[in-house]
Amino acid sequence: MKAPLSSLVIKYIVVLFACMIVIYPLFWMITMAFKPVAEWTSGSGLRWLPQNPTLSNFEYLLRGHTAGLPVSLDRTILGPLVSSLVASSCGTLLAVTAGTLSSYAVVRFNTLKLLPLSVLQLRLFPPLAVMTPVMVMWAFIGAIDTWWGLSLIYGIVTLPFAFWLMKTFFEEVPIEIEEAARVSGSSYWRIFYRITLPIVKPGLATCVLFVFVINWSDYLLALLLTQKDWVTLPVFMSSLNSAMGEMYGMKAALGLIAAIPPVVLGLLIQKHLVRGLTFGALKQ
Q1: How high is the pLDDT of residue 76?
Q2: Which residues 6+ apart lie within 8 Å of 117 measured at CB?
Q3: How far apart are CA 170 and CA 280, in angstroms?
Q4: Beta partners for residue 246, in sequence order
Q5: Closest to 258 in 3D by CA, of 77, 28, 89, 24
Q6: Which of 54, 75, 55, 53 lies closest to 64, judged by CA?
Q7: Strand residues in the chain grouped as ranges (E)
Q8: Between these two residues, 173 and 151, which has the higher pLDDT value?
Q9: Of 55, 120, 150, 256, whose CB count within 10 A is highest?
Q10: CB neighbour class for 3 (10 Å; exposed up to 12, middle 13-18, buried from 19)
Q11: Residue 192 and residue 139 in contact, taking contact as beta carbons nearer than 8 Å
Q12: What is the mean pLDDT of the chain?
């Protein structure tokens, strides 16, 4: 039975309204990134589109200064960009590797039954409640303001997400497939690497993207554990202010640059992403 025309119209209106709410901040950030200083400072009035589009905001981030703006940066965006890429990538690799192996062991060998809840405890406390002892430990081992110290804490914090995501995906793989391979003489490692892991590849891609985005957008951990050498993009963005006030144009330009790595990663794994997000949805 077809739905009445009026109900379809209402649905389309609701969807359109929801899309406008979601797209509006992105639209505003894109237009703000190309506005000159005079169009985003106080008293300039609200303008939806830049009247005189410019790349000066991007020039300011890449060079540390730009014509017509007396304020200069003490560093360019290149250092924080490299810091974010290194720390987020290494932290994601650590979390996904540990989460995949441990979740497979729990699902297939029925051992360490308390491990899922123990891993979940890493996320039961708010970050500020545990950051004081973490900072003391990181200072003791010399991990403050280092790439490996930031990568390590990213891997630890996002490990529960990787563990529980991969645990769900492994539970959807029929154990009969692995038992048949085991009867044929395959080792446990060969079964995992050559049979099970390719089956859950869409789920693994989803897990990688999810964990990377969490690490990439982190602000609190990077703020507390970095000082100068390994400042990340979110911390760098918070420093974009001057006597003129908030530098909205530069922050919008930085937001566009910061969105590139997650978008590129999503495009690279898009053929696995949809299947990974719906993995097991049709299971009876």
Answers
A1: 85
A2: none
A3: 10
A4: 241
A5: 77
A6: 75
A7: 241-242, 245-246
A8: 151
A9: 150
A10: exposed
A11: no
A12: 84
Write the pLDDT tens digit of every residue in 34-89: 988 887 775 656 677 888 888 888 988 888 877 667 677 777 899 999 999 999 99
C-alpha distances in Å from residue 143, one per residue of 85, 137, 170, 276, 279: 18, 8, 34, 35, 38
- Assess contact for 81 and 146: CB atoms under 8 A: no
Tell me if 131 sits within 8 A of 169, measured CB to CB: no
How many Å apart are CA 214 and CA 110, to the nearest integer? 30
| H helix or E strand, kind and range, residue 63 | helix 56-63
Angle at 60 between CA 55 and CA 64, to 5 degrees: 155
Burial of 186 (0-12, 13-18, 19+ CB in 10 A): middle
- Range in 1-5, 53-57, 67-71, 121-125 the model is least confident about: 1-5
User: Model pTM?
Assistant: 0.86
| 3-class state of residue 241 by DSSP | strand
Q: Which two tokens stand for residue 281?
A: 């949805």
3-class SS of residue 69:
strand
Q: Locate 183 and state its tokens.
A: 């009867």
Contact assessment for residue 86 and residue 155, using Cβ atoms and an 8 Å cutoff: no
165 pLDDT above the threshold of 70? yes
Give residue 217's pLDDT band: very low, low, confident or very high (50, 70, 90). Answer: very high
Res 130: pLDDT: 81
Is the model's pLDDT at 209 over the cut of 70?
Answer: yes
Amino acid at 212: F
**pLDDT at position 101 over 70:** yes
